[in-house]
Design goal:
It is a single chain. The protein is an alpha+beta fold and about 325 residues long. Helices cover about 40% and strands about 15% of the residues. It is globular. It starts with 11 loop residues before the first helix and ends in a 10-residue tail after the last helix.
Length: about 325
């Protein structure tokens, strides 16, 4: 989704150091697709058959990407092996580069459109993650409410400065949506390790249904259902064949939580995309704005469906 750095962009000294980590000369390389970062996403392979995944970036390429890669390395160092996560091999500074190296996750990106089988495999993997990583094993992480909460107050920002093309349903329910978003932030509290950026391009699935969660830059501590709700909010299902609404309720029921938790969290996520869809285009990430508009438009029908079956919401917090 963006112009990533590649093996050929690395200086000779960095390529040599990575060959030391690999245990042999690099025979082939391939670049992974997906994501919005400028960072490399290279799979390097040795003549002996070993493969490693390499993220490398400089502050001059994108300082935010460098910060996120450092955060990811710190999280990966503490994630249990039982979690469906590629193992950290090493992370280091090299001149003005920061480099993160992991084992290569098996599989490929989920099918688009999603299949029910792959969606269920990912939801099962998220349950496996929570079982392996509750209580949260990674120290000093922000809570999900801290990391995502400000984004989820998009409807507050919409109320302050409404766009001219705001959907009529949102206009009619804006105050109640603002109240729901505050409740949604509170519903994300907990002590499970959360990926906090679960979407199709951060998932790899094998033919047998084994799942790996990659790109841990936004790791947080929160509710055991936070990741599943974030994933389900991202699923485009215009014909209703994936039964996303029903899957949201099933996730909540497995964890003994009321259906209203899911509605409130999804409202907060929708608020972010309604607000973010009007942000200026970042020339370094040209496809991010279309992605945000698409997420806004696909999530709104799910929220309105759940809203129609919910009890009357309470007022905004004072």
């Amino acid at each position: 989704m963006t112009n990533r750095l590649r093996w050929a962009d690395f200086p000779d000294s960095l390529r040599s150091r990575l060959e030391e980590v690999l245990g042999g000369s690099v025979r082939t390389t391939s670049s992974c697709v997906g994501g919005f970062s400028s960072s490399s996403a290279e799979i390097i392979r040795s003549s002996a058959g070993r493969s490693l995944f390499v993220k490398a970036v400089r502050a001059q390429d994108n300082p935010a990407s460098m910060r996120l890669n450092r955060s990811e390395a710190a999280a990966l160092a503490h994630i249990p092996r039982a979690a469906p996560v590629p193992r950290l091999v090493t992370a280091f500074d090299h001149q003005d580069w920061f480099v993160l190296v992991t084992e290569v996750a098996a599989g490929s990106l989920p099918e688009q459109p999603w299949s029910p089988e792959q969606l269920d495999s990912v939801l099962t993997a998220l349950d496996t993650l929570q079982a392996a990583a509750t209580p949260c094993p990674v120290p000093d992480l922000p809570t999900v409410a801290e990391s995502l909460g400000p984004d989820m107050l998009g409807f507050d920002r919409i109320a302050e400065e409404p766009p001219t093309d705001l959907d009529p349903w949102i206009v009619e329910h804006l105050d109640d949506l603002r109240a729901a978003a505050y409740r949604g932030i509170g519903a994300l509290d907990g002590d499970s390790l959360c990926h906090s950026d679960v979407r199709s391009d951060n998932l790899l699935i094998t033919a047998s249904g084994a799942v790996s969660l990659v790109d841990w830059a936004w790791a947080s501590r929160g509710s055991p259902v936070a990741d599943a709700l974030q994933l389900l909010s991202s699923i485009e299902d215009p014909h209703g064949t994936l039964l996303v609404n029903e899957r949201v309720d099933a996730v909540l029921e497995r964890h003994g939580l009321p259906h209203s938790f899911g509605t409130d969290v999804l409202v907060g996520i929708l608020g972010f995309f309604v607000d973010a869809a009007r942000w200026p285009v970042d020339p370094r990430l040209p496809l991010l704005s279309p992605h945000r508009r698409a997420r806004r438009d696909s999530l709104l029908p799910l929220v309105t469906e759940r809203w129609a079956g919910s009890p009357s919401p309470s007022a905004l917090p004072s």
